[in-house]
Amino acid sequence: MLKLDEIQKRLLREVADLHGVPEGAYNIRSNSASAGRQSTANIEIVPKEEVSGLEIRIKPGTKNESVHIPVVMTQSGLKEVVYNDFFIGEGADVVIVAGCGIDNCGNQDSQHDGIHRFYVGKNARIRYVEKHYGSGTGSGKRILNPGTEVYMEEGSYAEMEMVQIKGVDDTERTTTAELAAGAKLVVRERLMTHGDQRAISNYVVNLNGEGSSADVVSRSVARDHSFQKFDAKIAGNAACHGHTECDSIIMDEGRILAVPALEANNVDAELVHEAAIGKIAGEQLIKLMSLGLTAAEAEEQIINGFLQ
Amino acid sequence: MLELKNISFQVDAEGKDKEIIRNISLTIPDRKLVVVTGPNGGGKSTLAKLIAGIEKPTGGRIFFNGEDITELGVTERAQKGIAYAFQQPVRFKGIRVLDLIRIAAGKTLSISDACEYLSAVGMCARDYVDREVNASLSGGELKRIEIATVLARKAVLSVFDEPEAGIDLWSFRNLTEVFQQMREDIHDSSILIISHQERILEIADEIIVLKDGQVEKQGTRNEVYPNLMINEKAAVCEGPFKMTAKEGTEC
User: CB within 8 A of A54, min separation 6: which ones?
Assistant: First the structure.
């Protein structure tokens, strides 16, 4: 049985939209221990022995099933590195929901570094959702450093939604992907930083197989004194399509460094990058104000829409 | 009722003061459809922005239903019942047509109620409510959505800056019906339209001709319209689509 307090339940709602025990396979990690775990006939979740983490094995052909592996931390000063490996069988089609919520009311830093490796089998499809959230009034920082490695076999498809909207003080995200022929990777990152927060996002995507493609799009808002760096490299090593886009709003004293990079190692590689950084357009504010919103309400609407 | 008293608006152009609006006084009465016309560069759009609160006059006062609103900002004027349709509609990433209409209405409209405003401007509502108000929409589509947002406001005074620009002739015919309908639907409301189009001038109760930042003529449609000089009509034809409303003939 799950035993979670109200703060932990709130964190679970924020990071995984969970209001109770999820359907299907799950593992809920709370303050470095498993608070509940369930495998299904097709999805097996096994704890690793040498290091902290899980092996998640999804049988070939598994359809319309989901895996939830949220992490919540409420103890100040906790630091952990967790290795989760996902083996997605040929032709499977599943949804994987991860995410980490930290509530830090103490004065010591809390840190969760989740290293996720995905082995996506031939013609398999996954949708991966990862949300980060921080709360708590302590002076201790809330730190998340996710590492994601994606290995995609022929004809596979991965859609990754990475969201960090509130309360995480420091993040260094590294995502790497290797794509075989016909594989397709779609990344949608949404990020908002406040205060003195810092968020670094690094992507390296290698399009190795013919007909492989990647679409890496980041939308972000940097407020107050926060800093963001978006560094995305797509390398085309075959006849492939790659697109990366960083679209950012800066406010207050926020700073953003966008470093989109393309590397074409094959004459048939088609690679595109776009990057735009700017403050909210004055005419957008005026339009919404002319509909009766205050300047602050207009700003909120624009940001909410932008980060949808 | 809107009253402009001795309104002036100057801008700094290359170190020199340039007068865009020169000491204009005029009244937009209740229940009237007033069209402001005149050559390009005459100050028409600036006048609309001064009324909406987007620009502040450098001289004079503006009264709305007897209250001095000169110092009020865009939001406060909107909340008092002034609506403004942009000449160049604004695009938003992530904000849907439905969101914009709901914001305009100031309440949570049902989807079918929101669709009515889109249908009124000749759009197949179902195809558009969930679309983002972004660059994927054409200029004409954005313009119609812009007009729909003003309809949804049900404002006491609605100001349209060249509503016909970018709208094709077929829907343009419907556009005049939209204005007629607005007058019937919103009690005691008045409408101010900045336009070059004869078809819109033809439905005006009053016409104001603005030239070089001053009111050159003002009166009822019957007083002003027949006397619009040929050369002014020629200037009118320098609109963005270079056509008269009559059967869309090229100027």
Answer: A27, A45, A46, A47, A48, A69, A84, A85
What ipTM, to 2 d.p.? 0.90
How do the pLDDT tens digits run along chain B, 251 residues long? 999 999 999 998 888 888 999 999 999 999 999 999 999 889 999 999 999 999 999 999 999 999 999 999 999 999 999 999 999 999 999 899 999 999 999 988 888 888 889 988 888 888 898 999 998 998 889 999 999 999 999 999 999 999 988 777 666 678 888 888 888 887 778 999 999 888 899 899 999 999 999 999 999 999 998 877 554 555 554 444 344 434 333 33
Q: What span, in angstroms and rounded, lies between the C-alpha atoms of A22 and A126? A: 18
Looking at the complex, does the CB of residue B249 fall below 8 Å from at least one CB of chain A?
no
User: Any chain A CB within 8 A of the CB of B130?
Assistant: no
* Pick from A192, A45, A34, A164: nearest CA to A99: A164
B78 contacts A292? CB cut-off 8 A: yes
Our CA angle for B232, B237, B241, nearest 5°, is: 160
A-to-B residue pairs, Cβ atoms closer than 8 angstroms: 60
Which residues are CB-neighbours of B22 under 8 A, at least 6 positions away?
B8, B212, B213, B214
Angle, helices B97-105/A295-306, rounded to nearest 10 degrees: 160
- pLDDT at residue A11, as a whole number: 85
The span from the CA of B100 to the CA of B91, in Å, is 11
**Residue indicated by tokens 């090593």:** A237
Q: Which of A6, A7, A72, A65 is nearest to A34 (CA)?
A: A72
What is the predicted pLDDT for the residue at B169? 62
**CA B167 to chain CA centroid, nearest Å:** 14
The residue assigned the tokens 């449609």 is: B221
Best of A290, A300, A302 to mutate (most B CBs within 10 Å, chain B):
A290
Range of the domain at B69: 2-85+155-248
Exposed/middle/buried for B201, CB within 10 Å: 0-12, 13-18, 19+? buried
Give the start-to-end residue ranges of the domains of chain A: 1-154, 169-308
Domain for residue B116, yes or no?
Answer: no
Q: Do B75 and A301 touch (CB under 8 A)?
A: no
Give the H/E segment covering residue A15: helix A6-16
**Quick one: tokens of A107?**
């004065």
CB of A305 less than 8 A from some CB of B: yes
Position B101 in a domain: no
Q: Is residue B90 part of a domain?
A: no
Q: B43 CA to chain A: closest CA distance, Å?
A: 19
State how far the Cα of A266 lies from the Cα of A236, in Å rounded to an integer: 6
pLDDT at position A165: 84
Q: Is residue B176 part of a domain?
A: yes
Phi, psi (rounded to 5 degrees) for A281 = -65, 135
Looking at residue B13, which CATH number applies to its domain? 3.40.50.300
Report the DSSP pairing between strands B59-64 and B67-68: antiparallel
Q: Give the total number of structural domains in chain B.
A: 1
Q: Give the residue-averaged pLDDT of A83-97.
A: 96
